[in-house]
Amino acid sequence: MRQLIRGRVLDFHADPAETEDNHRYLEDGAILVEDGLIRAVGDYASLREPGLAEIDHRPNLILPGFIDPHIHFPQVQVIASWGAQLLDWLNTYTFPEESRFADRAHATAMAGRFLDLLTAHGTTSAVAFCSVHPESAEALFAASEARNMAMIAGKVMMDRNALPAVQDTPQQGYDDSKRLLEKWHGRGRGRYAITPRFAITSSPEQMHAAGTLAAEHPDCHVQTHMSENLDEIALTKQLYPSARDYLDVYEKYGLLSENLLLGHCIHLEPREIARMAETGSRAVFCPTSNLFLGSGLFDEAGLRAAGVTSGIATDVGGGTSYSMLQTLNEGYKILQLRGQKLTPLAAFHWATRGNAIALGMEDEIGTLAKGSAADLVVLDSRATPAMALRMERAETLAQELFILQIMGDDRAVAQTYVAGQPMKR
Ligand code: GUN
Ligand code: ZN
């Protein structure tokens, strides 16, 4: 099927924080989509053809779909749980809730709801933690495949310091992960992420198993958490007394690489930052979560100056919104408290191409390049009365983007396309 999707088209070819010539903006633009792939992008006048199906999204903006590089699928009913910091929050709310994902029917029901929420918020790809149960990853991969979504996910490996109902063992964690990886990695648009939850819930034996798996599958991402909370860091040092620092736990088991995604990275030591830069390991900033759990303020400029690549993500259910717009809003405010600036162009680059770069997938997602899947978000800058009123005084594209970034949420997502298919209504 061929279709022309018309609107105000915006995409990025460089990081606005680094390069002046960084985006393309077509006031009356269009995207030619055939069999779910982008065939051409250009001015509407140059792409129109007699008889070609058209959908007109003007005056809305069309961008590559948002990418959320850190989110917890089994926390859809944990989001907005009151009053705790990380370790209490995990023990009180999160682990009990994740235990329900042993039930395949529950996991399947939640997977559909989860993906519907992502696309309702304009997110077309995510890197997701599943529960410890292979059923949860099976459910998420199956639902993603049915929607043709580029989903990166893995079952968490965790064998200590948690309820028995959410623990595996080093061998079982290895075997289950391996089986899921062999089934789902590279199947359709799915990719498997090896997922030791974090140092506290994995024994040295399990970390070793995760390292073995990563060495056997160097093309897989590895996702975990690091240095989110001061009590977490202190407990990690107790549990791994010979580690030089938190990163050293992951380093000892051979997990550092350009495929490693380290959620949070707030309270880092200079050696950790230098090693992350040397190994290409990625930091993932989770602003709504870091504020909600009182974790701390991410140092974006410091990491950038050191040569560390960062993504930006929701971290639902520690995070409080599925919206990458709201994530950019809170990210802007955290960087304000740090004396740093997140410009609107840099923000929209980050949520699209920037996150794709953090995943090493910039040729596949976060792009409108010819031949890539037509994963698109259509944004309405006048979605609410307050936004429409503010927009009366917006004069530039950057001002409009900033209004979306600060005031926008799922109401501003007029449509989301996954591989050319509309996901809303
Ligand atoms: N660290 C280990 N597990 C988690 C989790 O589920 N959420 C957050 N925010 N941090 C974690
Ligand atoms: Zn997380």
From TrEMBL:
Signal peptide: none
A GO BP annotation: guanine catabolic process
Keyword Transcription regulation among UniProt keywords: no
Listed Pfam families: Amidohydro_1 (PF01979)
Reported cofactor(s): Zn(2+)
Species assigned in the record: Paracoccus zhejiangensis
Record's cofactor remark: Binds 1 zinc ion per subunit.
EC assignment: 3.5.4.3
Highest rank taxon of the organism: Bacteria
Family: Belongs to the metallo-dependent hydrolases superfamily. ATZ/TRZ family.
Keyword annotations: Hydrolase, Metal-binding, Zinc
Record function comment: Catalyzes the hydrolytic deamination of guanine, producing xanthine and ammonia.
GO molecular function: guanine deaminase activity; zinc ion binding
GO cellular component terms attached to this protein's record: cytosol
Metabolic or biological pathway, per its Swiss-Prot or TrEMBL entry: Purine metabolism; guanine degradation; xanthine from guanine: step 1/1
Gene of this entry: guaD
Name used for this protein in its record: Guanine deaminase
Residues of the Amidohydrolase-related domain: 62-421
